[in-house]
Specification:
By secondary structure, the chain is an all-alpha fold. It has 22 helices and no strands. Helix 6 crosses helix 12 and helix 19 packs antiparallel against helix 22. The two termini are 19 Å apart.
């Protein structure tokens, strides 16, 4: 901790803006039954107003100065720019037909007898490639419904396999907003975080495949309909994945993937030449919400930190934390709790990230490990809460309720167990 942070006096009242946000967000969800009735961005705007009303010792202009320094942090600006670049790539590759071709390629390769386990595997690949769990759920749930109808397997089981696969890539993908937020708030390299994260969740993924295979061992399936695909449209996903893994700058990877997606789309007739910039713009527009939320959260956190709220949380955590193992458990618990309150794992990471970074600095936790824990446990929460966008989308597309699907969400639970074992038993450098 640096000298400026030591001079800040712990002040629990400084956490009021965050408390107001949670009260409004959760309250509206409980009253209406829809946890997305209150737009997250509106909730944080109200929280920012509350933050400005606190601490009469600072003038309005001085508070403006505090938040501009918070928003102007290198990690915040970089994160927002990456969000926009990821949106451009997503818009271009989707318009080029990359999602449909990737799904059909997977279904064409897999034998019919392993379709449910295959849904999980395909979901893992697509979510890692696309960087969006909700997008994966949207693309694969109708296929899961069809497989259920043709095999007799319980529909909730098939949809649960899709949900598990979607959450696999949500915290691994190089273009996922959760991964970007985790890496930038902790100050580590994308490829380092991926490697750390991958080996933590791999055992959970392998056990999940075995479980789905065992549950459907005596079934079979024949998938009718057009399963045509164009490998040229799948290549942009592979380029982004491989480029990020070998350490190419994330901006170069995303811009290169966008350009290749546009070329593939125009060459295969999916994108009209005069629509290239339109599809990019549509993708960028889809990232406006999380970009603006990140800016507002940075403003609120800057004032909360200035008024002593972050210091208060750190002092409370310090009373519970004993060494690096305790610090990692604290980061994991923080990510899980904030996600349960916000129902948005990216927002949870943006909120918890600065606090986790303080814990890392004090207890010597490796930044890539902290980024992995933030991403994993916020995804654990997001994959299990019945009011999260992923389960709500899966339920809406399948005609089920979130509670029908929840008994088959093996992967998020196994991911949490694997990560906890990693915390307790992995050796640490002295």
């Amino acid at each position: 901790m640096n000298q400026n942070q030591k001079q800040v006096k712990a002040n629990p009242a400084a956490l009021l803006p965050i408390g107001v946000f949670l009260l409004i967000f959760l309250g509206s969800g409980i009253i209406t039954g829809d946890f997305y009735a209150m737009p997250t961005i509106v909730g944080f705007m109200i929280a920012l107003i509350v933050a400005f009303m606190q601490n009469k010792g600072l003038s309005f202009d001085e508070k403006i100065s505090v938040i501009t320094k918070g928003v102007g942090d290198e990690n915040i600006i970089t994160m927002c720019l990456i969000f926009l670049c990821a949106g451009a790539f997503s818009g271009a590759v989707s318009a080029a037909g990359g999602v449909e071709s990737t799904v059909n390629l997977g279904l064409s390769i897999l034998p019919p007898t392993v379709m449910v386990a295959g849904l999980f595997v395909i979901g893992c690949f697509i979510s890692t490639s696309m960087g969006t769990s909700v997008g994966t759920v949207t693309a694969l749930t109708p296929i899961a419904v069809g497989i259920s109808q043709k095999t007799g397997f319980e529909m909730a089981l098939c949809v649960g396999a899709v949900m598990c696969g979607a959450m696999f890539g949500d915290n691994l993908s190089m273009i996922s907003d959760t991964t970007i937020a985790a890496v930038k708030t902790q100050g580590c390299e994308m490829k380092d975080k991926f490697k750390e994260n991958f080996f933590i969740v791999l055992p959970a993924a392998l056990i999940t495949v075995v479980l789905f295979f065992a549950l459907t061992l005596n079934g079979s399936a024949t998938i009718d309909g057009d399963l045509s695909y164009n490998i040229f449209r799948v290549i942009p996903y592979l380029l982004v994945l491989v480029g990020a893994l070998i350490g190419i700058n994330v901006f170069v990877v995303l811009i290169g993937g966008t350009i290749f997606s546009l070329i593939a789309g125009v060459a295969t007739g999916s994108i009209a030449l005069d629509q290239m910039f339109v599809v990019m713009g549509n993708g960028v527009t889809g990232m406006y919400d999380i970009t603006c939320i990140s800016i507002l959260v940075a403003c609120v956190v800057a004032l909360v930190k200035e008024f002593g709220g972050i210091q208060f949380i750190l002092e409370k955590l310090r009373s519970l934390i004993k060494g690096q193992k305790g610090a990692e458990l604290g980061i994991a618990s923080l990510a899980l709790l904030v996600d349960a309150c916000t129902a948005n794992n990216t927002v949870a990471i943006v909120i918890a990230g600065p606090i986790a970074k303080e814990i890392c600095d004090e207890y010597g936790v490796d930044p890539k490990r902290s980024a992995s824990l933030l991403d994993i446990f916020s995804s654990v929460g997001q994959g299990l809460i019945p009011y999260g966008a992923q389960l709500l989308t899966a339920a809406a597309l399948s005609g089920l309720t979130p509670y029908n699907i929840m008994p088959y969400l093996y992967y998020p639970i196994l991911m949490a167990i694997s990560a906890l074992l990693f915390i307790f038993f992995r050796k640490r450098a002295k």
